[in-house]
Specification:
By secondary structure, the protein is of the alpha+beta class. It has a domain of about 80 residues: hypothetical protein PF0899 fold (2-Layer Sandwich), CATH 3.30.2320. A three-stranded mixed beta sheet has the order 2-1-6, with helices on one face. Helix 1 crosses helix 2. The longest helix has 19 residues. It is elongated and about 55 Å long. The chain starts with a helix and ends with a strand.
Length: about 110
């Protein structure tokens, strides 16, 4: 489950922010997760709770905002919503789709004390 290593990365971001912004407790973490990011939200929730135990984010709530995948066809230039990082263009049936958004995960917001 790679969500565990992603949760470790989130903790590193939180700890770095705590050092530079001088806070001691995190109450809430908001993540944006793209549908094409290969991150399972429920697995991320489990990993988040496990990794945050005993840290300044222990007990913090996790909000996940899912970002739709967007793609563009290199053949005809059409843009479309994507559920998978591959497929055919609905306009021209071309197979040269390029993901333009929804393939990343990021920490959007921290509520701290």
């Amino acid at each position: 489950m790679h969500e565990m290593s992603l949760a470790d990365s989130v903790l590193q971001i939180i700890e770095d922010a705590a050092r530079t912004q001088d806070f001691t407790r995190v109450c809430r973490v908001t993540l944006e997760i793209g549908r094409l990011a290969a991150v399972e939200p429920e697995a991320m929730r489990f990993a988040f709770d496990a990794v945050m135990r005993g840290t300044l984010a222990d007990g913090a709530s996790l909000e996940i905002i899912e970002i739709p995948g967007q793609g563009q066809c290199a053949g005809c230039g059409a843009t479309m919503e994507m559920e998978e990082a591959y497929g055919l263009c609905p306009q021209c049936d071309g197979a040269q789709l390029r993901v333009v958004s929804g393939d990343r995960m990021r920490v959007k917001y921290l509520e701290v004390e």
